[in-house]
Amino acid sequence: MVRKILVICMILFLAVAVSYNFEWIIGGYPQTKSAIQGNVRDYLMNEQNYKITDIASIDVTYSRKFGDYSAQVILSDEKETKYYYRIDEKVKQSGYNGKTNKHRES
User: Fold this and answer.
1) What sign for the dihedral angle of Cα 93, 54, 68, 88?
2) 26 phi, psi to nearest 5 deg
3) Is the pLDDT confidence value at 31 over 80?
4) CA angle 23-25-26, nearest 5°?
5) From CA 57, how far away is CA 71, in angstroms rounded?
6) 3-state secondary structure of 67
7) Pfam families, from UniProt (predicted)?
8) For the segment 38-76, what is each residue's pLDDT rounded down to a tens digit?
């Protein structure tokens, strides 16, 4: 009887631990990544006046270390540079990585 209770408690503990950390385990929720990708695309097109053809790619990643999402944007005319965007209350550019930075926001 004691063994059965112990097994049930361990299973409950593991179930709670997995469900609480599920986002971390799978590397971010796909629906959240898709929503962020859309928000960044809308920001670039509506607030920064880029055309859809100006955007080569938007890749959203989940940081297990910090527990947040960020977007890496590559623009068609500057494919060797990645621009990083964070989404707090609104979308904002947080940095870039590359030899050039002609689309850097101030």
Assistant:
1) positive
2) -90, -5
3) yes
4) 70
5) 10
6) coil
7) DUF3139 (PF11337)
8) 999 999 999 999 999 999 999 999 887 877 899 999 999
Q: Which residue has the tokens 């209350």?
A: 89
In this predicted structure, what is the pLDDT of residue 53? 95
Contacts (Cβ under 8 Å, ≥6 apart) of 24: 64, 67
| Token reading at 15 | 């179930």
Structure tokens that stand for 10 in this block: 């361990």
β-sheet with 68-75: strand ranges across:
55-63, 68-75, 78-87, 91-97
Pairing of strands 78-87, 91-97: antiparallel
Alpha-carbon Rg for the chain, nearest whole angstrom, is: 20
Average model confidence (pLDDT) for the chain?
85
